[in-house]
Design goal:
By secondary structure, the chain is mainly α. It has ten helices and no strands.
Length: about 200
């Protein structure tokens, strides 16, 4: 080997080290961006929860208590139908609450963002059973009254505790869009029949 020449091992060491650094940067930089994005969303959510959602908690809890008084015990089969049909979605409840509190007058981006953040607040603050109650409290009967008990009376002419399983399935389906299904009973019967078979079939 000539004097002053770089040994082969040293010549290989430099590009290998640089290659590792490049791979490391390619991994770390996206993770940093993701971490910053998650942190930013977290800050926005906390701001929404503290400034927008928390001040309205007393009224939301009152709605829940009023629904609990009207329907002391939701039948397990009805709850199954609600979850199987639409998951008793927190998004639906969040949208209803935002409308009730006059927070829906905004552009589409803010509306969807508020709905998402309020659904997260609901999930963080209430149990599933409590969220089911709120979902039922937000339902309307298509004639100006809110609460699943009113929808039950309008749809079947009797209270929740007297409903049969097929009637509970129909109620769960109608809860998604009362104005539509109350006018189209044939469609309601078809969809609720499918839901009933799905729930009873496990």
């Amino acid at each position: 080997m000539h004097r002053g020449a770089t040994p082969p091992t040293e010549r290989l060491h430099v590009p290998v080290t640089r290659g590792r650094r490049i791979v490391w940067l390619l991994l770390v930089i996206p993770l940093l961006f993701i971490g910053m994005a998650v942190a930013g969303v977290g800050v926005l959510f906390l701001r929404s929860d503290i400034v927008s959602f928390r001040p309205r908690l007393p009224r939301i809890r009152q709605m829940m208590e009023e629904q609990k008084t009207a329907t002391p015990a939701l039948q397990p089969f009805l709850v199954q139908c609600l979850h199987a049909g639409s998951g008793a979605p927190d998004h639906f409840t969040a949208r209803c609450l935002l409308v009730r509190h006059g927070l829906n007058e905004t552009d589409a981006v803010r509306w969807h963002t508020r709905t998402l953040f309020w659904s997260w607040s609901l999930y963080c603050r209430f149990s599933e059973a409590e969220r089911d109650l709120l979902y039922c409290a937000c339902l309307n009967d298509g004639a100006g009254k809110t609460g699943i008990h009113h929808l039950s009376l309008r749809l079947h002419g009797k209270p929740l505790e007297k409903l049969t399983e097929p009637e509970m399935a129909a109620l769960a389906v109608a809860s998604r869009a009362p104005n539509i299904y109350l006018k189209d009973r044939a469609r309601l019967d078809t969809i609720s029949g499918d839901l009933l078979r799905s729930v009873k079939g496990g």
